[in-house]
User: Which sequence fits this backbone?
């Protein structure tokens, strides 16, 4: 996924979940939309370098959108509207070996009381995929979630139900930073979700973890990461 032109700045503060005050390179202070409902632990420190996109829509209240937050080691892609597009493009470009061989791909597949991110079908059968953006990391380990997520639990239960009907089901975690080498569920933040993920995996829901390569020019699939429940 390629970015449009981005604008550099410095994060002053993130607040009310969806807002961030930014100082642009020219010294102007603006308020940007922050499309991330999580806590943004480890990627919202005041003083961090940031990149912003800017909408041409004159009716938008906040013209700028927070896209990337940087630390000393990596850029972190914090816009949760993008991971589905990144994964979809990677599947279409045959960059994820585990998800090749399907003839059709559909976004936002409605099933039961949920809406899952991707649905694949073809001679190989059917496959439902739920995608999660991972922005939290400590000491080389990426974690999800960064806040309690009842919605995430719901998706895990829905995947298990679909599994019983003979569908292949995949939880796909896209690590949106490059300073992690392993993925784990964040038991210290949401133990209920972590237990539900372990249970879903034991029942046959597949876990795929891939890391993005992130630059101010775009986000693209880089490599597969291992995961651990320990």
Assistant:
């Amino acid at each position: 996924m390629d970015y449009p032109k981005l604008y550099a700045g410095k994060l002053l503060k993130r607040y009310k979940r969806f807002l961030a005050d930014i100082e642009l390179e020219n010294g102007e202070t603006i308020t940007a939309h922050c499309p991330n409902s999580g806590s943004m632990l480890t990627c919202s420190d005041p003083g961090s370098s940031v990149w912003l996109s800017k909408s041409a829509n004159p009716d938008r209240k906040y013209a700028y959108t927070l896209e990337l937050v940087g630390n000393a080691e990596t850029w972190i892609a914090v816009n949760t509207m993008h991971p589905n597009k990144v994964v979809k493009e990677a599947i279409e470009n045959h960059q994820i070996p585990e998800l090749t061989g399907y003839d059709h791909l559909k976004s936002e597949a409605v099933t039961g009381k949920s809406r899952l991110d991707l649905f694949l079908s073809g001679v190989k059968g059917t496959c439902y995929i739920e995608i999660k953006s991972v922005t939290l990391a400590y000491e080389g380990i990426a974690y999800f979630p960064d806040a309690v997520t009842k919605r995430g639990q719901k998706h895990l239960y829905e995947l298990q139900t679909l599994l019983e009907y003979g569908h292949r089901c995949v939880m796909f975690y896209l690590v949106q930073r490059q300073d992690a080498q392993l993925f784990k569920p964040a038991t210290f933040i949401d133990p209920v979700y972590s237990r539900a993920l372990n249970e879903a995996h034991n029942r046959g829901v597949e876990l795929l973890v891939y890391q993005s390569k992130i630059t101010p020019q775009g986000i693209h699939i880089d490599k597969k990461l291992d995961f651990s429940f320990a």
